[in-house]
Structure formats: C-alpha cells, structure tokens
Amino acid sequence: LGPGLLLVAASFAAFRLLNRALERLVPPPPSARRNRWKWRNIWTSLAHSVLSGGGALAGFCLYPELPEDVADTHPPGAHSLVAVSVGYFLEDFVDMLCNQKLRQSWELLFHHSVVIVCFGIAVLLHQYVGFALVALLVEINSIFLHLRQILLMANLEHTTCYRLNSVVNLGTYVVFRIATLAWMTRWLFLNRQNVPLATYAVSAVGMAIMTPMNVILLYRLLRSDFFK
C-alpha cells in the first residue's frame, strides 16, 4: 500500500514539473502562443503515452502468457507502471481543472475520473494489475492522437506528416483502442463469476462509459480527417 501511494505521488510531482519545464524544452510556435497551457498539456500527455503505452507493450511482449491471468499475476514493474499512470491522470485532471473551462473539459475530466478509480483499485489491492496493463495498450494510439493535436496547433494539418499520422492514428485506433476495449469487455463477461461484485460493478460501469466515448471519438476523427 505505502510504496504504491508514494509512487503515485512521485509520478504526480514529476509530471507536474515536466509540464512546467516543457515550454522551455519545446517552445510553442507562433500559432500556439495564445494557448500556451494547451501546448504544454499535450506534450505532457504525449510523454505519458510513450512511457505507459511502450511499457505495456513491452510487458506483453516479454510475458506473452500474461493475458491468460490478468487478475492475480503481473510481470515485474507492471504495478509500478499502473501507479505512475494514476499519478499522471491525477496531474492532468488538476491541470485541466485549473486552466480550462468545465464545459470544454468535462468529457476528459469524466474519463480521467473513471481511469483513476479503476487503476487506483489495482494499485491499492495489488489485483487486476494485468487487466490495467491491457487498458494501457490504448496509450499506443494516444501517442498519435496527441501528435495530431500538436500538428493542428502548429498549423501543419495540410502537410504529408499530418496525413501520414492520420492513417497511422486510425490503424492504431482500431487495433489498440477498439480491439483492446472489446477484449476487456469480453474478459469481464466471461469471468463475471470470479470477480468480486464491487470490482465487477466498477469495471462494468467503466467499460460502459469508455466504449461509447471511444466510438464517438472514432466518428469525429473519421469525419475530420477522412470525410471532410
């Protein structure tokens, strides 16, 4: 319990410091200077996606048997990776709450609340860490979602780089977001008798919220990047 919470707190502080330093590390282009907060926020999110998505993919490559038991077993470092992600989502929640109007950020705030609760259970109970690691595969697609936002803020939406990123973004969206959520929903359904009622209820509600949100986001991406 103690080390997990300490790691969450350390992660929160580290991402907060990174957020503050990014404006010097990655200066915003002229087109993004009116919204410096969002520029820093997206780059911070990109850093988390690279860390967590890459870490989750590495975990499943090193331990291909992990999907067979995502409730009780997990590879070394998986618990730490989930705890680090909880710290990031807490930092991003606070960052949006302080810098963005609620009507503009309520969807992401809602999303982060669900993730913090679900991942927090895994960190505190040392159970379902593997299940949380499956969820972190979604962050592989988030890398390209954040790159898309960065390119838009830099007024590079008419470049070859943006078009290439759009194609990769769509492909990873289907593989690492839609397929991952489908696998998680199937696992919950098949193992409902083996999961404690409270944990099952939280997970089922989380999946019921995440699935339509991601379907809507897919529709928005298709409409914006492919069906203009």
Automatic annotation (TrEMBL):
One GO cellular component term, please give it: plasma membrane
GO annotation, biological process: membrane assembly; phospholipid homeostasis; plasma membrane organization; regulation of membrane lipid distribution
Domain of life here? Eukaryota
Q: Which PROSITE patterns match?
A: TLC
Query: Which locations, inside or outside the cell, does it occupy?
Result: Membrane
Q: Does the keyword Methyltransferase apply?
A: no
- Name all TLC domain ranges: 34-227
**InterPro entries registered for this protein in UniProt:** TLC-dom (IPR006634), TLCD (IPR050846)
* Keywords of this entry: Membrane, Transmembrane, Transmembrane helix
Membrane topology per record: Multi-pass membrane protein
Report TM segments. Answer: 131-147, 167-185, 197-222
What Pfam families does the database record attribute to this sequence? TRAM_LAG1_CLN8 (PF03798)
* Protein name listed in UniProt: TLCD2 protein
| Organism for this UniProt entry | Nothocercus julius
Gene name in the database record: Tlcd2
